[in-house]
Write a structure and sequence with these properties.
By secondary structure, the protein is mainly α. It has one domain. It is 69% helix and 0% strand. Helix 2 packs antiparallel against helix 5. The protein is globular, with a radius of gyration of 23 Å.
């Protein structure tokens, strides 16, 4: 018996890859639209929840910025890190994901879109909270800076198929937001002197956002946090550039834990 081996035309393989790529982009575009819709719903529900407070001004100056911060630094990373990894292009024999085109910037693009939507919330809050334009702008930059770090951590986790790597990425996002306040609270609970222990937070943005949202009138005490905010933004930008270079030059091992 003679077996005939039929060669599959290269054109058909390329067509299959092209169709798979188009399907991948359509799914990503649809997922991004649903994400923006969910973000809008989160902001609306957050504002509705603040209406139960005694003062609308308290809701504007305290609750909304913190709920937005939780959405950008915890809820969004949790969503992306819990989703199944889908490589945008064919994986090479070494198990690396070729970083071609703009596919590797998906998380960064989502971060940018979420922050653009947030502008429709933070600037109207300025009128109700009686913030200055400078105060509102720096609050905006603060939330963008720390959420950029969370986006970088999320993108790192999303490039791995290992559940443990994704879990570590989620824990790092959680620690970035709550570790320092929790440490300060535990320190005050353990002290026996009766005096509250406090320090200027360098990792968590919670104290900075708290100071940024206070009503100071003509005072500018919130400006003491500006160097740290700029340093965090610079760290996020440098981190993204370095991560992008690593993806373009070396790729990423999909089986890496």
């Amino acid at each position: 018996m003679t077996l005939e081996i039929t060669n599959i035309p290269a054109a058909n393989v390329e067509t299959d890859d092209l169709n798979r790529g188009r399907d991948w982009h359509r799914r990503r575009a649809a997922g991004r639209r649903y994400l923006l819709l969910a973000w809008c719903v989160w902001l609306i529900i957050s504002w509705t929840a603040t209406l139960t407070t005694q003062s609308i001004k308290v809701a504007a100056t305290v609750t909304m910025p913190f709920l937005a911060l939780i959405g950008l630094m915890l809820m969004w990373p949790m969503l992306r890190l819990s989703q199944k990894f889908e490589p945008p292009v064919t994986v090479d024999p070494n198990g690396r994901l070729p970083a071609t085109g703009h596919q590797q910037l998906g998380i960064f693009r989502e971060w940018l879109q979420l922050n653009i939507v947030f502008q429709a919330v933070v600037w109207p809050l300025m009128l109700n909270a009686e913030w200055t334009i400078e105060q509102t702008a720096w609050l905006d930059v603060t939330i963008a800076s720390w959420s950029l770090l969370a986006a970088l951590i999320t993108d790192w986790g999303c490039h791995s198929t290992s559940g443990w790597t994704r879990l570590v990425a989620m824990i790092v996002c959680l620690l970035l937001l709550f570790a320092e306040p929790a440490l300060m609270g535990l320190t005050n609970m353990a002290t026996t002197s009766g005096q509250a222990i406090s320090w200027t937070m360098k990792i968590s943005p919670i104290r900075i956002v708290w100071d940024m949202t206070r009503q100071y009138g003509g005072d500018s005490r919130f400006q003491q946090h500006i160097p740290l905010v700029l340093a965090t933004m610079a760290a996020g930008i440098v981190g993204w550039v370095a991560w992008r270079i690593c993806l373009l030059k070396f790729g990423w091992r999909l089986d890496r834990g």
